[in-house]
Every structure is written in structure tokens, then in C-alpha cells.
Amino acid sequence: MKLFLVHGIFDDGRLFKNMSDYLITHDLKPLIPALRPADARYGINDLAKKLEAFIQENTEANETFSIVAFSMGCLITRVYLQHLGGAKRCVNFHAISGPHHGSLLAYFFVGQGAKDLRPKSLLLQKLHASQSSLSQVNLFSYRTPYDQMILPSKSSHWPIAKNIVTHAPLHRLMLRHPLVLETIKDNLVIG
51-58 contacts: CB < 8 A, separation 24 or more? Predict the structure, then answer.
């Protein structure tokens, strides 16, 4: 089964190096798109369409896959799954430090992506209203109470997912946390 890793704002696939190395040692070979522009200036929907194109290029028509996403990448993935039909083929979705309810930090940035990331944005309202489309996907959401990017950190709590709380001291360190890595690995192999 294919596995895609989806990065967040201002990032690219390099931030997944540790996770990718870990997954490779467990016979999982992740594919990592570089979604541009990484500052999401044209919005989350724009990047979700680019994710859709990458997945289409790297899978057969009816092939199933799993997705691990980080930070804003969680919302990019949700738009792809919920609004672009990706949920029909996605088996597992692991959302790491995803701003499911927005982040107050987004008020300090400009561009459509920043607007999409703000609490109660139109995009977040539409995602909340269409969550039922994910009923066949195994959903996991990971958060740390010490997150300095997702404010408040409880915004990463996703009621329809299995929620896992770690004590990673920093946002980016969620990608290296043993509980996160092991849970992803165990559920990708089973899934």
C-alpha cells in the first residue's frame, strides 16, 4: 500500500527525514510531494489540488493508500479527502499537530492560506460540515500541549479521530516522538 507524507506551511519533504528513515526500516517507502508555494498564499484548496495531482501520478486508479500529514498539511489532506474525493481510496489518515479548529498564530500572517488557518474560517466550517465523508477512513490525530504553532494546542484534538496526546516539547518534534512513530507504523502495517 502506498504511503504519502504531506508537509505543512513553510516546509518541504526534508522535515520528514527522520520519520521516513524510520518507516523505511519497517518496509514502508513513503512518497513525499513538495507542495508549492509552501506559504499557501493561494490557499489550502490550491495545495489540496496539487496533492491530488501528485497522488494520481503515483497510484493506479483504484489503488488504496495511507496519508501522514503534519500541521497545515493536515488541512490540505482533509480538503483532498473530503472535497476532492480522496476518502474513497484512503485507508488511514494520521494527522500530526493539525489545526483542525484553526490557530491563533495565523492572524500574524498574510495570504489566503493564513486566512484559511484562522479559527472559524470559511474553510474550517466547510471541513467540519463535510466530515461524514471520512466515515470509512481510519483517523488518528496527534497533539502536544506544548505546541507553539497550533494555538491553542487543543485545536489539534479532532473529535471524530482516535486522539493521541504526547509530551513533545516542540511542534516539529512531534515528527520524531516515539509514540507517534510507533502508532503510525503499527496502524499502517495493520491497515
Answer: 51/4, 51/6, 51/76, 51/77, 51/80, 52/80, 52/84, 52/86, 54/4, 55/4, 55/80, 55/86, 58/2, 58/4, 58/31
CATH architecture observed for domain 2-190: 3-Layer(aba) Sandwich (3.40)
Domain ranges of the chain: 2-190
The string of pLDDT tens digits covering residues 58-100 is: 999 999 999 999 999 999 999 999 999 999 999 999 999 999 9
Task: Determine contact, residues 54/3, Cβ cutoff 8 Å.
Answer: no
Helix then strand then coil, in percent of the chain rounded to 5, is: 45, 15, 40
Nearest to 69 by CA among 114, 33, 105: 33
List strands edge to edge, sheet with 138-143.
30-31, 2-6, 65-70, 90-96, 138-143, 162-165
List the helix and strand counts (H, then E) for the chain: 6, 6
The closest of 34, 32, 46, 14 to 111, measured between CA atoms, is: 46
